[in-house]
Amino acid sequence: MERYSYPFRAIHVVIILAATVTAGIHLFLGLRFGDILFLLNALGYVGLTGLFLIPLKFLQPFREWIRWILIAYSALTIILWAIMNGTLDVPGITAKSAEILLIILLWVDRKKS
C-alpha cells in the first residue's frame, strides 16, 4: 500500500475522539441490549472515520466523498434517534453531542483542506 502525505492536524485528533465516543456508546448499547443496529452504527463510525483519515494513496481521490458520507451518516443517526427513541438520557445526549461536534468539525476541516 502506497502512502501519501496528508497534514494531520489537531482537528483530526478531535474528530477521532468524537467518532470514538459515539462509536463506543453505540457499541456498549449494542452489546448490552443485543441490538444489531447499535453494533452496525458503531462499526460505521469506526470504518468511515478510518477511511477518512488513513493516509493511503488510493483513498485520496475519495476523501471528500468520505467526508460528506460521514457528515450524512452522523445526521442520519441523529434523525433516526429522534424518530425511533429520542430519550434524553446520558448516553443519548452524549452520543448526539459527539455526533453534532463531528459534523461541525468535518465542516470546518473542509474549509481548511
Automatic annotation (TrEMBL):
It comes from the Bacteria. The chain crosses the membrane at residues 12-30, 36-54, 66-84. Keywords: Membrane, Transmembrane, Transmembrane helix. InterPro entries: DUF7475. The keyword Transmembrane helix applies. This is Uncharacterized protein. It comes from Anaerolinea thermolimosa. The lineage of its organism: Bacteria, Bacillati, Chloroflexota, Anaerolineae, Anaerolineales.
